[in-house]
Every structure is written in structure tokens, then in C-alpha cells.
Amino acid sequence: MPGFEDDMPFFDEPARASRPAPGGIAARAMAARQGRSATPDYLNGLNPEQRLAVETTEGPVLVLAGAGTGKTRVLTTRIAHILATGRAFPSQILAVTFTNKAAREMKSRIGMLIGEGNVEGMPWLGTFHSIGVKLLRRHAELAGLRSDFTILDTDDQVRLIKQLIQAEGLDDKRWAPRVFAQMIDGWKNKGLGPAEIPEGDARAFANGKGRELYQAYQNRLLTLNACDFGDLLCHPIRIFRAHHDVLEEYHRRFKYILVDEYQDTNTAQYMWLRLLAQRPRQSASVPAEGRGGDRRPPDVSGAPAQGQPQEAAVRPVSVNICCVGDDDQSIYGWRGAEVDNILRFEKDFPGATVIRLERNYRSTAHILGAASHLIAHNEGRLGKTLFTDRPDPEDAKVNVHAAWDSDEEARAVGEAIEAYQRGGHALNDMAILVRASFQMRSFEDRFIEIGLNYRVIGGPRFYERQEIRDALAYLRVVANSGDDLAFERIVNVPKRGLGEAAIRQIHDTARALGTPMLAAAANLAESDELKPKPRAALREITANFERWQKALDNTPHTELAETILEESGYTDMWKNDRSADAPGRLENLKELIRSMEEYESLRSFLEHVALVMDAEQNEGMDAVSIMTLHSAKGLEFETVFLPGWEEGLFPHQRALDEGGRSGLEEERRLAYVGLTRAKKNLHIWFVSNRRIHGLWQSTIPSRFLEELPEAHVEVQESGNSYGGYGNPYGGSSFASGRGGRQNPYGASRFDSLGQGSSDKGGAFSNSYATPGWQRAQQNRTEATSRNWGTRSGHQVERIGYGETDSGYGAGRGSVKGRTIDGELVAKSVAETPSPFSVGERVFHQKFGNGNIAAIEGNKLTIDFDKAGQKKVLDSFVEGSRGVGE
DNA sequence: CACAATTGACTTTTT
DNA sequence: GTCAATTGTG
User: Fold this and answer.
1) Whole-structure pTM over 0.85, yes or no?
2) Residue spans with biased composition (Acidic residues) (predicted)?
3) Do residues A67 and A371 lie in contact, with contact meaning Cβ atoms separated by under 8 Å?
4) Which of A76, A132, A520, A560 stands the most exposed, by the fewest C-beta atoms within 10 Å?
5) What pLDDT sits at residue A814?
6) What are phi and psi of A308, to 5 degrees?
């Protein structure tokens, strides 16, 4: 990671005042010093507010930057400005973001502003966590760690907790490790250690042993020389508090602090920032302005130990902290973000300058109008109103569409996308933003069917995949033989005949000897405490690790990684795996090796993997993006589709149940984020029926639809422009509801469409299925329909299929029936020998060509060329002869 | 010990 | 409906 080199000296870099500063910057700094005030080109094109935000470098500044108002530009220009005017050296600037993506973006934009070549030491720019790691590596011993500590991800964390719960003799069913991991996360988000958590919280878990368990977990982490994500924030906080000399070191170092997405900070991050940004009077260092107008950075070359000349501090040092955020885009409350941090800024930092950026450069007046009107329904805002000075009468209004069910929704969106495409729009400029990821499937299915390129953003992360985590575990053990969690993960992967018993044995030995598990295993392999088989297996694997570790220093790390995966039998394991995703996994492993090339050593690679591994694939192709509203924050698209605006889904029922009013407001902010992603075209969809947890439920339109202003919205007369299927609801009822009242629409404007939406809770009303109830339901339908199912046999399927293919006018009953038919026919005709054989090439109307991977009765598992692996009934496919390849 | 059958959960997600 | 994780069986 450029700019994050750990060997970069801490304090001597800005020291050589005599050393020529990089060209452009030096020249500008010189100009600034000499009072020449020609506007530097990097300031050109900023509007007055933006310029103020850039040039108000001293003192606390809060920039309230609405969506699309040039927030990132302000941040990056501000950094460039500070550098160009010689106010600070790069290393004296700390810039914090939330995501790696944002960090990368800022880095490259700063690079562009000040010239790549000139970047001699970038600012400390990174996520809270990556900066936390950097701090912690330097001061690990103060937290009871060694500086080569490992970073556990959620998966490791959960497995560890599970062990602890079992060690306590507790039932890990009743006390789910995952739940406890979340509790710990929650505490750490608040900066609370085991001693500080509220009594109630402590009692709520593990028969009141919550606190002990938390403590045990922390102890275990120290033994393992490991940190979880929360610790990356909490340890530095604790170190800062306990060691003032360390904190002062950083006070001297960081002259300017910048924070992106301030509305998303949680309590721990807030404390972390406060510690760095607020300097107690008595320990204040020399204010730069105190040096007689000389704007050069203060000389901080003296090593900390040497000490600064302690001039009596006259006043608190101005905290040059600049936080940029938008309270209306706070959508991470559920994971500990405190909107309050931004609402409170002026109190926290007295004398703060607050700058509002309200001039929007992104969206049309209609979109802004809709978004503003919607968000105005929230209370407790700092209040901003976005405006554009480029209204265009040609702009399209925000479109609201209705669909019968999610399949029709997907179909209609698909057709709209194709229509835009025909109109010359690139797929890359379009996005579908959903509330919950399960909504993605119907779009994916549909797009595969019609051959529309799409990409899913923010799915399961690359490094979270099983094969990647396994491979990494091997590498982790090689790099650090004390990594027990990693060792345990792969001792028996691939299967080596080392089961529960053997692993417990290794555990016990490790504990008895006080060594890591790998060493214990080596020991055990030489003793006769194990049966011959596991013993041989252990001997082999420990010998392997020993050999790999020896090779670590004299083999290129990518090569070593390949060797390890080969020799351990790991790649063979997947090569022998017949399942459809095995080739993909092998491909991923190759990708992993490729990605290692960018790092100079195995160690540095592993460090980055833990924190910053996200693979963006398919970047090259033109494709529609599908993602959740959450992951869309910060992005923009020409055309945006927002499906699923129904009560219960959006706003989500659970947000309402658990968050009450504030939950609703967060959902509304999420809607606001969604609306403001669109530059030109915005289409909102809602459906009357949606399948949740396998059951069809009727739904009513989202209340957010009622909150859109009539003037900027156009309600589409149902999907009549999208193909010839019937309109299942009265299209005219859209128009009918328009009336007076405060809300320009009648309350039931969209309601009237919700055919069969009798039960008020809709899809997500509390009545919905517990797993048991649901299964009972399923059994019942199956039982009742078995009779006519056997009678009609394949006939029924074809009808069912025909309906799927040709029309959505059929009521939901038949849609339901289709599914049931699939089930029941499969069971009733199970004995009939299949006309197909494994490996045969077949054609399916919906999924195209594919090869049969497996046959069970009349159910075929087929690897489709385009659609991947699907299970279908044999009557749906035909031999692919004649259906050209 | 390995595999198949069964059970249960299931909003959002970064690091 | 789908997934993973756990339980029961060979």
C-alpha cells in the first residue's frame, strides 16, 4: 500500500528543512510565502462554499456535504492546498476514510492534484482500521502484543468464541457464538472493555457469564498474539489513554486531521479522533502561527525522546480537524454508527466553522426535489436543501411503476434497461439498487434469461470464500507457526483422517507443552499416543510445514504458495471434486496467487489480505450493476432503478420493530441515498406480491412513495408498455387518488393497487413463518396436491411452464402452483427411469445449453453454460441436437 | 471418521 | 426456497 511503508521514518522526514521539497509544491509554497496570491489552478472550478471549505485550514471545520455536492473533491483539494501552501508536510496530515475504496479514490485524486511524481510520502491516508494497525504495530507491546500480531476476521473470531463457549461447558446452540461475536463487536464499537460493559449486557449472555466470556476471549487473543477488527480501534485508544508520551508523539506529528463520512463514525472511532484531535492545554505543542508568520511546518525533527522545548502553552492548540459528512446519509446506525457525532460537532469542537455544501452537481431538479421532499420527513436533521442551478425542462420526472410480483418487476426492469440501451445508454451507466440482497436473485435470473450483462457488487467477498480462506490458512501457518486458528482450519483439509478426536489430542498436547498446535502436532507425530493412521498423517503434514517454512526465505512467495497448495493436496482436492463450483474455486486459487504478485513478501501480502482485500471483477465489460442500497453510497449512475418499495421490505419490518422511529428514519435516509444516486433517470418499482422465505405474501406500497412530491413524480400507468400480458390491477386507480390534503396524494393512492393486500402487515407481518410452521405448511400443500398431481403428471408441469413463459397475467395462485407442481411431480414419478444420462448435452428453454451433472429420478442437475448449475425436471429439457451450439 | 439427511435461519455490512 | 451447520448412520 503506497504511503504505508512501515519502514518510513516517523519523525525525521519533515526534518530537513534544507532538503528541497518536491518541485511544484515547493514553488507554490514559495509563492505563498512571498505573498503572491495568484489562484493556484487546483482551486479553479470550485464554488465559493467549496473553496471556503478548502481554504479554512485552521481550526475545527465541519463540512456538511449533501449528496453530489463535491465532497471528495473538497477533501482532496484541501489536502493539496495544505501541502501546496507549505502548511504541512505530507506526513503531518492524517486522513481517515471508512472504506478501502474511498481511501484508494482519495489517494489517486491527490496524486493527480499534486502530481504523482511529486508524491514524496503521502499523508497518512487510510481507513480507521488500517491506520489502527499501523499504530498498533508500532506500539504493540503496550497492548500486550508482539508487533507481528495476526488480524482475525469474523470467521476466525466466531470459531474462537465457539471454542470458548464449549470450554465453559455451555451449550453453543443456546448461546450462539455468532451472536456473541456480534455483542463483542458492539461493545468494541463503543470502546468498552470487559470491565466496562453494562451489567445488563453481561448478564444477557451465557447464563450471566457474558463478562467472563468476553474477558476469556480477550485473554485468548493475547495468547494467540492476535487482534480482531474491534481491537484495531480499541487498543490504540487504550494506549493513548495510558501513555501520554505516545499520544503526544502523535499530537506533535499530526497538524491536520481530515475525516470522511463523519456521520458513520461509531463511538470508538469518535474517541480515537478526539484523543488525537483535542490537545489538553498543558501539553500543547508549539502553535505554528506562533512562529512569526513563518508558514513553514514546525521543526519536529527532534526525536520524541529528545523532547521539544517546552514553551509554556498559552492556549489550546487549534485542532485542525476537518470532518466531512452528511447526516442525511447516515445509514449504518445498526452497526454502531452514531449520527449524534455529527450533530454534536459544534459542541465538541467549540468555535468550529460549519460549511454547508448544497449545490448539487449530480442530479436533475426532479430527482433532487423528490429526495429533498422525502428526507424532510425526518426530524433531528442539521438541515440542508440540495439545489441545482441547471434545471432543464427536458428532464424526466421520477417514475413510479407497479408490478404484480417480483418476477414481473424483474422483467419490466429488464425491458426498461434494454429500452435505454437501444436509446444509446451504456449498461455501465445503469444500476439496480435493492434493499436486501435476496431481491437480487430475480434480476439475475431474468438477466441470464435474456442475456443481459450484469454485475453484482458487494456480494460475498473474495477473501471470504472457503477455498481462499483455506489457502490463506496454509500460508498463515507457514508465515507464523503460532497461528493455531489457521492450523486448526486446515489440519484436516483435505481430509487426512484427522477427526475430532485427533484434534482434541493436539489441543491437549499443545496446552500441556505450552506450545502452538503445530509444534504439538510434530511432537505427537513422534510419540505413540495416536493410532498409526492419524500419526502418519500428522507426521506428513508437520514435515510439510517444516519444509515450507524453510523455503519461505529463499523462494519467491507466489511460487511457494503454489507449491504449498500442490503438495498439501489442496488443489487436488478440488480437482477431484465433481461439483459444479470446483472449477471456479480452482480459478479463484489461481487468482489468489496472481494477486500475491503485487506484494513484496508473503508477510505483507497476508497483512493486506486481512484488511483490504476486495476484488473487483468484470471491470472491463459493459454491464448493469446490481447492489444493495448500502453499498451504493458514494456512487452515482445516469439511470437508477429502485425496486421493492413495499412496506415490510422498504422500510424493512425489522428496522421498524427494532429501531422504532429512529429505525424508520434510517430507512428513510436509505431511501434518500438511493434517490440521490441517480443523475438523470430514476425509476421506482413496487409489487403487489412477493415471495418471502418461500411463501407468497401480498404487500402494500411503501409509505415512502407517499412521501414523494407530486410535482416531481410521474406514476406510470402500469406495465402496459412492457409486453402484452394483462394488467392484473386497475391501472386507472393510479390517477384516481390524486387529491388535496397535506399529502398531495390520497393516503391510499398506491394502496388501491395492492390487490389482495388485506392483511395490513403485508409480506413481513409478524405472522410469517417460523421454520417449523413453514415446513408444516409445505408438507400440507404437498399432501393436498399429491392427488391431482399424480393424475395429471407431466401435463401439469407443461402448463406450469407455459405460464411462466408466456404470461404474468395469471394470478399468484398459479405461480404458486407451478412451484408446487415441481415438487410433487418430482416425488410421484421418482421411479420412472430417466430418459437422460449423466454427461449428456441438453437444452433448456430458460437456461440454454448445458451438461447433465447428476440425475435423481426425474430431477436433473445440469451445469448450464450460461446460467450455472440448476436443478430442473427432465421434462423441461430436450437433447440439444439441432439446437445449434 | 466420512458421508448423507435433517434442521434452522433468513436486512443492511466494513474492517 | 436456499444455505450452512449439525445430527445420525454406515
Assistant:
1) no
2) 1-10
3) yes
4) A560
5) 26
6) -90, 150
> A321, A349 in Cβ contact below 8 A?
yes
Nearest-nucleotide field for A128 (CA, C1'): B15
SS3 content of chain A, % helix, strand, coil (to 5): 50, 15, 35
Q: Identify the residue whose Cα has the smallest distance to the C1' of B8.
A: A771
- At A335 the pLDDT is 84
Which helix (H) or strand (E) covers residue A860, if one does? strand A859-864
Residue A434 (CA) to nucleotide C3 (C1'), in angstroms, measures: 20
Nearest protein residue, CA measured to C1' of B9: A771
SS3 A691: strand
Cis-peptide into A494, omega within 30 deg:
yes
> Nucleotides on strand C with an atom closer than 7 A to protein CB?
1-2, 6-7
Instruction: Write out which nucleotides of chain B lie closer than 7 A to a protein Cβ.
Output: 1-3, 7-15
Q: How far is the CA of A441 from the C1' of C3 (A)?
A: 14
Q: C1' nearest to CA of A172: which nucleotide?
A: C6
Reading the block at residue A617, the C-alpha cell is 471483477
Cβ A719 vs Cβ A412: under 8 Å? yes
CA dihedral A58, A63, A68, A69 (to 10 degrees): -60
Nucleotide nearest to A173 (CA to C1'): C6
Q: Which residues of A sit in the known binding site?
A: 65-72
CA A499 to C1' C8, whole Å: 17
Using a 10 angstrom Cβ sphere, with 0-12 exposed, 13-18 middle and 19 or more buried, the burial of residue A223 is exposed
pLDDT at A202: 85
What the block records as the C-alpha cell of A81 is 492546498
Residue partners of A268: CB distance under 8 A and separation at least 6: A188, A189, A190, A191, A230, A233, A234, A237
Question: How much is the pLDDT for A289?
Answer: 37
Spacing of A693 CA from B10 C1' in Å: 7
Please provide the size of chain A in residues. 885
Query: Distance (Å) from CA A781 to C1' B7?
Result: 20
- Helix axis angle for A128-138 and A229-242, nearest 10°, is 50
The predicted pLDDT at position A836 comes to 66
Q: Which three cell numbers stand for residue A695?
A: 411463501
Calpha distance A618→A632 (Å, rounded): 17
Residue ranges in chain A modelled with pLDDT below 70? 1-38, 116-121, 280-318, 612-619, 717-837, 843-849, 853-885
State which protein residues have CB closer than 7 Å to strand C.
Answer: A 162, 172-173, 691, 693-694, 769, 771, 774, 819, 822-823
- Looking at the C1' of nucleotide B11, which residue has the nearest alpha carbon? A436
The protein residue nearest nucleotide C5, judged by CA to C1', is A173
Closest by CA to A262, choosing from A277, A251, A281, is: A277
* Residue A362 CB burial class (10 angstroms; 0-12, 13-18, ≥19): buried
Give the per-residue pLDDT at A873. 54
| Predicted local confidence at residue A766, as pLDDT | 32
Query: For position A614, what pLDDT does the model report?
Result: 60
Q: What is the set of active-site residues of A?
A: 71-72, 260-261, 329, 677
- Closest nucleotide over all strands to A822 (CA to C1'): C1
Comparing every residue's Cα with the C1' atom of nucleotide B10, the nearest one is A693
Q: Per the annotation, where are the binding residues of A for ATP? A: 65-72
pLDDT computed for residue A848 by the predictor? 60
Determine contact, residues A763/A649, Cβ cutoff 8 Å. yes
Burial class (CB in 10 A: 0-12, 13-18, 19+), A854: middle
What are phi and psi for residue A131, nearest 5 degrees?
Answer: -70, -35
CA A175 / C1′ C1 distance in Å: 27
A46's CB contacts (< 8 A; 6+ apart) are: A54, A70, A73, A74, A77
The nucleotide lying nearest A651 (C-alpha to C1') is B11
